[in-house]
# Entry
Amino acid sequence: MSKAFCWVDLETTGLSYIADDVLEIGIVITDFHFRPKVNIHRLVKPERLLQVPYMEQVVFDMHEASGLLEALNGANLLRSIHELDVEISDILRRVFEEEGFDCVMLAGNTVHFDKGFIDAWMPLTAALMHYRLFDVRTLQTFAEICGTEIDNPKVQPEHRSMNDINTSLNFMRKFYMPFEETSLHAEHLVKIL
# Structure
């Protein structure tokens, strides 16, 4: 059985997968040694207008500061989340087959948030994922509890999907390094856990 991670970060108009829209999708497929196999980045045609009545002011300000709103307004031929679900699931299915991945876990920082939107709006993509999640935030908290500081500057600007994924991957590579040096690989950690 060959396992992989599907690192995902979604930028949205809010916290509710029922009431809010996905604006940006970032995906990086890696093996269990955090080596990237494919990157997918898509801007999404929002269902509602991109203005304050349809999203909280703090979310509007965050996406304006990150440049996401400008990117969406300047983009040509944005596609709906449903069209992107078909495209992305086709890409993932092909990559999983080419790489021989038969167990792919969603991964990311507070990834249950992204999973809620994926389950609600991207059922074809959701169906390709294992039910287990790999959450970097849990490991960051564990490192903090242990008094271990892992220098991991955030890739700027924050709150852009690919930058946030790369911040998580950079952390994981640093966190994983001692295990790799002692031959305790991620496959062994998964079996232990």
Q: What stands out?
A: The chain has a mean pLDDT of 90.
